[in-house]
Description:
The protein is 27% helix and 31% strand.
Amino acid sequence: xREPFLFDLAVTHQFKGGTEVRFRGIRPSDEEEMRxxxxxxxxxxxxxxxxxxxxxxxxxxxxxxxxxxxxNTLSVVGLVGEPGRGHIIAEARYIIEPDRPWAEIVFVxxxxxxxxxxxxxxxxxxxxxxxxQGLKGFLAQVLFSNIGMMKVFRRGDLLVKVRLEGGxxxxxxxFDEPPSPSVGNVIRVDG
Length: 191
Ligand SMILES: CC(C)(COP(=O)(O)OP(=O)(O)OC[C@H]1O[C@@H](n2cnc3c(N)ncnc32)[C@H](O)[C@@H]1OP(=O)(O)O)[C@@H](O)C(=O)NCCC(=O)NCCS
């Protein structure tokens, strides 16, 4: 597999309403900005992202979150505002499984910036990077009520196999199986 640090993660994109977001790889110095983003989340966003009601983000936890091991994790943050003084408004990452070239993917977009297309863009970006890195697919867990996240997966151009397991969707997204135009790209595999 290729080393992820060889990829150029820096890109700027304009979203709905002209909102310009700069994307780059996460850095250890993003700890404070990431903590601010976390404390801006509603309970619903926290629940959707962490699957539990996490109320605090201790220093040690956030420090390990921003100090990624690029050999098994790829994390991209989105910033708005002046370069050098911007605010992080989105983060998406994939974490490669220890025993096979598949990765779990997770996202979060600041509520004030949701619905502009940022989640959809990040999904496309991470899929491209993962393919370039030689990965074979993504895995994701999405709560049943998380309509926004499922919309993002539906909009992508990858096949998404969905299994409903105790109120959660377990998603398997193989990169080598193209979606069928007649069925669409999201298929249920739990009968
Ligand atoms: C899921 C999430 C990442 C999507 O990001 P986003 O930037 O809003 O995504 P996009 O703008 O590309 O598209 C989302 C679509 O879902 C819609 N949507 C978002 N939340 C919704 C909700 N609660 N109910 C219905 N639709 C919703 C948006 O309006 C948009 O549709 P539209 O373009 O037709 O208006 C973001 O909502 C988020 O951070 N949620 C909380 C954390 C989370 O759920 N993480 C996923 C765990 S893997």
